[in-house]
Amino acid sequence: MAAPEHIVKRIAALRKELNEHDYRYYVLAEPSITDEQYDALMRELMDLERRYPELRSPDSPSQRVGGEPTKIFATVRHDPPMLSLANSYSEDEIREFDRRVRGLLGTQEPEYFAELKFDGVAIALTYREGVLVQGATRGDGLQGDDITNNLKTIRSLPLRLHKPSPTFRNIGVRGEAFMKRGDFDAMNRQRSADGERLFINPRNATAGTLKLQDPKMVAQRPMHFFTYALFSGDARLASHSENLEILRSLGLPVNEHGKRCRDIESVIAYWKSWEERRESLPYDIDGVVIKVNSLRQQERLGTIAKSPRWAIAFKFSARKAETLLKGITLQVGRVGTITPVAELEPVFVGGSTVARATLHNEDYIRDLDLRIGDTVTVEKGGDVIPKVSGYVPDKRPPGLVSFVIPAECPACGSRIHRLEGEANYFCENTECPAQVRARIEHFAHRGAMDIEGLGEAAVNQLVDLGLVHNYADLYTLHKHKAELVELERWGEKSAQRLLDGIQHSKTRPFNRVLYALGIRHVGESVARLLVEQFPSIDALAGASAGDLQTISAVGPRIAESILLFFGEKHNRDIIGRLKRAGLTMHAPDRPTTGKLSRMSFVLTGTLPSYTREEAKRIIEAHGGTVASGVSKNVRYVLAGEDAGSKLAKAKQLGIEIITEDEFKTMIG
Fold this sequence. Notes:
Elements: H1 5-27, H2 35-51, E1 75-77, E2 87-88, H3 91-105, E3 112-118, E4 121-128, E5 131-137, E6 143-145, H4 148-151, E7 171-178, H5 181-193, H6 202-210, H7 215-218, E8 224-231, H8 240-249, E9 259-261, H9 264-277, E10 285-292, H10 295-301, E11 303-304, E12 307-308, E13 311-315, E14 319-332, E15 337-349, E16 352-358, H11 362-368, E17 375-380, E18 386-391, E19 416-417, E20 425-427, H12 436-444, H13 456-464, H14 481-485, H15 492-504, H16 510-516, H17 524-533, H18 537-541, H19 545-548, H20 556-567, H21 569-581, E21 600-604, H22 612-621, E22 625-627, E23 636-639, H23 645-653, E24 656-658, H24 660-667
Parallel strand pairs: 2-13, 21-22, 21-23, 23-24
Antiparallel strand pairs: 1-6, 3-9, 3-10, 4-5, 4-7, 7-8, 10-13, 11-12, 14-15, 14-17, 15-16, 15-20, 17-18, 19-20
């Protein structure tokens, strides 16, 4: 039965009124009703849409948080590509930019448009028939992630354009998502009170939020948006400044501080003005963007590599302050990376109070000769991330000693290691509390154990509730099904789907299990090579560094990483539990009898009749094994034309070298 006409009209009126109030509140900052009045209108709309679901539409104000969680983001191709800007840091460089523009334009005089460079996340939007149908991250400039449902939660972005003319119903829009500093600080205060990890700065918080797979969680974060580019195949657009006015007329948020500049000196004056006033803004900027205003001139100037010739970023200089280095603590990353962090006497720099700053690694501390008790210089550069750039020699008290990285992980007490060729120390304990979430996510990843239903949000819930403390605990999770069913947004079907996925993961082959363990530097391809040489987890765990390095792809760094992993008692205990759970810890059995039984071969050079893969299959079918590198454990080297270093090493070790004809005789 069709909805009554008066209901259809009331829903349309409510949507129009709510969209207008969103625009006045979030774009114009001129609200005309109270929050209570707005909420009453929204409740009425949602109630009517529940009663008449056939009238619900994706551009309704009630649908801003209507998207379901997604497992992965689809890929979107950008048309046109999202170019990156070249950077300049001085007036001389910006005048050189002007000289290049003038040289390419000849007799034409350029007019510039200068606007603030927001420190946020670049986004591409698509409107069709006036409705927001797609939003995507910049990605590599050619393609990005489809995060439409997440972007719909940003209240300043209209889901339907404001009174679009036929010319501007189908458009592409570029802009920047960002957080205001006050909102960011309030969010971090709440996260601190809840015992959650703090975000470093508003830009990182914005980027992390847009990657969340549940729009309902995104909606809880205070994000804003500015648009700065318009594309329309239906209109002949004239200038950048006019495009901004069109965007504004369509109800899209446009920053009010952009300015037309008659020449490059006016641009420099604009840059100087905002470098002095940037702290007066409620959001972070790290420079200004300068564009040739005429779109026809932009087209004539074109692009070079991935940057336009008609635009450039004019970055602000770093902001500095001096403060006391009170201490150095170790922070454990999600994959065990140990990062030293400077604990500072709080100092106001670059618009915010800085109390901590990364010191990157041991070499960074040593190169700067930083010591606890020093007066240090803290900078905020163009990326607004604070860093310690040095100490003040005249203010160093006598008796300060050089800093030494502690030997134990601050999160779990395990011994930490610095591998050859690495800048950082690492904790190899898979049960380290600081690493649990990331290691479980990796274990469940598609290329590893591929456990359906075990994404980031699910992992966080399971860890927070204490149901899992490591990835071995997944295989006893069936004992907690009743608790799973009661979790928020779960239920019987979701819980059973997860448990079925965990059970099915036991069928994954040994190389996938080995990759899932998360041994540093052991990716999917290295895991496959290791399994060929060491057909069981026990064989791999008992291998020496020399044994491991007989594999051509395994050098000293990977070998050391494997030894450290199996040398950690926590990891050995975890592997024991995975064995008992029934995971595959060995490669498929090879024939134990045959003409090549107990014989190990290495293949080198080009064989006349076989590819290497064919020769490998024949050897294994006759009970032999194929190693990837020459060692004392190899019986024969099967050499073809253009054999290289393996042949030379075989001669050096006295290993028997055979031709393809001799090999054929052996197998009959």
